[in-house]
Write a structure and sequence with these properties.
about 425 residues; alpha+beta; Aminopeptidase; Alpha-Beta Plaits; nine-stranded mixed beta sheet; five-stranded antiparallel beta sheet; about 40% helix; elongated
């Protein structure tokens, strides 16, 4: 019997409770040091993200963990195991945020990982294999980068999943700098990812990936469960940089049927996609949809002009790849039909498809057992949002996720994770790392 399974469940409860001051201090410091006028801002490859990485690194050093960084700037904090040559566990999440975001989205997972490592130290457990906590860069890059890119730039870079031109085609929204330039400006090495087929993180060196994250929807709160064990992560079809070109003209003098209105044409497309999504849900298919950006050109728009240009973004998500492909075809077809009928040009431009990720059944079963032993009330729950866990899954690394109840959703400053719920999830994570094989 190994050290972990020999322990009573109450030992894990006591150890995590004893380590919780580490988590509380980190959350307080993150909130204080990355605060903006509304919430927190930790931009991908920006100042706030670096502050978060520095705080976690300092804490890891105080726990005598090993520190490593990769060419993309991801941070690894390692609790050495008995067999240093064995494939390691990775516990990860991201440390960046959206603009005016909340304090827990992403960061809770990294804090939980370090708290779990400290708990194992308090228990005197040396794990059979290394446990690496990974602070991941640029998961929220869709807020900070436009252009042709597939999101999750920090994890995808080191897993070998970047597209051939992505280092140059991902453009920072504020500086106009490429991803490569932003990575280099932050002190890392973009050249590593050019013309290289082998990933920095080799799947054969990773036993599995675990991620704790706040739930970004209301389900756990509504159902009364503090913890969720994630069944899978929705895939998505995204048009990040879509645009419609019409003709600017006088808003009063030109007859309605002679206009080439970019706003009305785009609105028609968005409403058509919404209706199609409603039909899919009524037929029992999994589907959600948002037009995440929708704006006219501030240099030219006016109340007295028919709008001649709209820039927008589409985000369609489902747990079914076939549904996503069907919706991609539908959106493309409708854009062409509306363009012809209204005399405008709707261009979806670079549309990306991310397939759904099913969480590892063995890990899920083990965590369900642990939740029962630890008296952690949980429910099985799918993830509607994307996570770095999906990227690990996509390269064949078994992955699992724990959700923590969070009122008020995420991507806003009102995230409301309770530390009591966080402690329950961290107990489950700690027990899992000590006992899973």
């Amino acid at each position: 019997m190994d050290q972990g399974t020999a322990r009573a469940s109450s030992d894990f409860v006591d150890a995590v409770d004893a380590a919780m001051p580490i988590a509380e201090r980190l959350f307080d410091d993150l909130a204080r040091k990355t605060a903006d006028s509304v919430g927190v801002t930790r931009g991908s490859y920006g100042e706030g993200e670096q502050i978060a990485h520095d705080l976690l690194e300092d804490t890891a050093k105080s726990l005598d963990l090993e520190i490593e960084k990769d060419p993309a700037g991801n941070l690894y904090m390692t609790l050495p195991g008995q067999d240093r040559d064995a494939p390691a566990w990775i516990v990860g999440s991201h440390l960046d945020s959206v603009y005016h975001g909340g304090n827990y989205d992403g960061a809770a997972g990294v804090v939980a990982g370090v708290t779990a490592q400290a708990s194992l130290q308090k228990l005197g457990i040396t794990p059979p294999r290394d446990i690496k906590v990974m602070g991941i860069r640029a998961e929220e890059c869709s807020t900070w980068f436009v252009g042709h890119h597939g999101g999750h730039l920090g994890s995808r870079a080191v897993l070998g999943l970047l597209w051939p031109d992505e280092m140059e085609s991902a453009i920072h929204v504020h500086t106009g700098r490429t991803l490569a330039e932003c990575m280099d400006d932050a002190g890392f090495d973009s050249s590593y990812f050019r013309g290289r087929n082998e990933p920095y993180l080799k799947p054969e060196r990773i036993k599995g990936y675990f991620e704790l994250h706040i739930e970004q929807g209301p389900v756990l709160h509504h159902e009364g469960f503090p913890v969720g064990i994630v069944t899978g992560i929705r895939g998505c079809v995204r048009a990040r940089s879509a645009e419609t070109k019409g003709v600017y003209t006088h808003s009063g003098a030109v007859p309605q049927d002679m206009r080439q209105d970019a706003v009305l044409g785009t609105a028609e497309l968005v409403l058509d996609i919404e209706r199609r999504c409603d039909e899919a849900r009524s037929a029992g298919q999994d589907m959600v949809f948002a037009a995440g950006k929708f704006f006219t050109d501030a240099d030219h728009h006016s109340m007295v002009k028919v709008p001649g240009k709209v820039e927008f973004a589409l985000d369609i998500r489902s747990q079914d790849t076939a549904v996503l492909k069907e919706m991609q075809a539908y959106a493309t077809e409708r854009a062409a039909i509306i363009s012809q009928s209204r005399g405008i040009e709707i261009s979806l431009n670079d549309v990306s498809l991310v397939t759904p990720a099913v969480m590892d059944a063995g890990f899920r079963g083990h965590m369900q057992k642990g939740a029962n032993l630890l008296d952690v009330s949980y429910m099985d729950i799918p993830s509607g949002a994307g996570h770095d866990a999906a990227d690990f899954h996509d390269v064949g690394i078994p992955a699992a996720m724990i959700f923590i109840r969070n009122d008020h959703g995420s991507h806003n400053p009102d995230e409301a994770m309770e530390l009591e719920d966080f402690a329950l999830g961290t107990r489950l994570l700690t027990w899992t790392l000590a006992t899973v094989d």
